Amino acid sequence: MESAIHTAIRVFLLCCALSSGVPSGDEEGNIEYPTETPRMWDFENGLQGWKPRAATVEVERVTQPGATTGSRAYLRVHGRMEENWNHAVSDSVPLQAGQLHRLSAWVKVVSIGATTPMPFLRCEFLAADRRREMGRASTDLYSAANHEQWQRLTAEFQAPDGPVSGWLALEKGASDPTQIDAYLDDVTVEPIEQLTVLARYDMSSIPAALEKVRGVHPRLYPTAERLAQLRQAIQTTHADLWAEVKALADGAVRQGAPQYRADDGRSGDEQLWQREVGNTMPHLAMACLMTSGKRYLDAAEQWMLASCDYATWSEVKHIGLAKGEHAWTFTAADKELVFDWRTGQAVQQP
Ligand SMILES: [Ca+2]
Q: How many CB atoms lie within 10 A of CB 29?
């Protein structure tokens, strides 16, 4: 289970890193791959290569105490940007191919246009061949709740394989006209050994709250009391809803789980036909619980086992919508629901 969670998290993080629609850098010429790492832009001695994306925005160094103890200067980015996706950008960023990295920066938004999104930091990956899409990583957004305060924004990512460099940006979050006055300090890109987020799922020591329920079968949604209420409700207030669910479940019983096929002739490697597999199992599980009908129980099990036997849950390697959405969210999450409810049913029908 632990490895499955880790895999899911890695897929999710890579989806975040690779799915945003921002254009690649517009710089021309050959790329020089810097070797210095980690790298920090603290602005103590100059702009350190940061520049505005367009002339309507100004980038200047302010010699005042910055975000951290000992900081005596920071970068101020202010002005209107009529288009583009970045307020300001850096020079080249050293990246180690295939290595995990952390991008972090202190950001303080002093003022922002009424329709301007809160900014964030981005690392845009660059291949030697500029035409090749390499993806990007983004930090979390600056929080509007703590407006006018320094906030540390971070992102952790795996650099692409092969020769790779990159550049950083203070991102607009939109190509529409924007207005901003924001400060930057201690922008850092550094290699890391593991993703911090994985530590949250380190279960080597079980939390006390979980120890209390050791051996207790978890219920993801309805309790026994709620199930009893629902069985009454489908006779009255929920009769229409039940009719819909029953019709879907009866159809699934008749149809049986679809055979695996690599290509459905319309969705390519995403294999979107599997969405319906994920969508169908809860109908069977609900019908099973509402009626104690063994045919629904048998069908739910057949659909679950068929799903587990599929050779792939999409063949898309990196673009994570297929795996992350229909395979993991729909199928895996639904299977837990079905398993949870099916277990209760099995107990009632020894
Ligand atoms: Ca500084």
A: 6
Instruction: Provide the residue ranges of all domains of the chain, joining segments of one domain with +.
Output: 1-22+194-216, 39-191, 217-342
pLDDT digits (tens, 9 = 90+) for 278-311: 888 888 888 988 997 789 989 988 988 888 888 8
- What secondary structure letter does DSSP report for 325? I
Distance 43 CA to ligand 1 centre (A): 5
Cα 73 to ligand 1 centre (Å): 4
pLDDT tens-digit map of 171-195: 999 899 999 999 999 999 999 998 8
Distance CA 284, CA 251 (A): 10
Quote the ligand 1 centre to 186 CA distance (angstroms).
6
**pTM of the predicted model, to two decimals?**
0.54
Hey, what CATH topology would domain 39-191 get?
A: Jelly Rolls (2.60.120)
- What is the DSSP secondary-structure string of 173-207? SSSS-EEEEEEEEEEEEEE-SS-HHHHTT--SS--
Q: Take residue 217 and report the two structure tokens written for it.
A: 């079968």
Residue 171: strand pairing partners? 86, 120
Helix (H) or strand (E) holding 52: strand 51-52
Closest CA to 284 of 335, 240, 218, 323: 335
Cα–ligand 1 centroid distance for 148 (angstroms): 17
Q: How far apart are the CA of 110 and the centre of ligand 1, in A?
A: 17
Do 168 and 123 contact (CB within 8 A), yes or no?
yes
Q: How many CB atoms are closer than 10 A to CB 180?
A: 23
Amino acid of residue 76: R
- For 111, half-sphere exposure in the C-beta direction (CA atoms, 13 angstrom radius) is 6
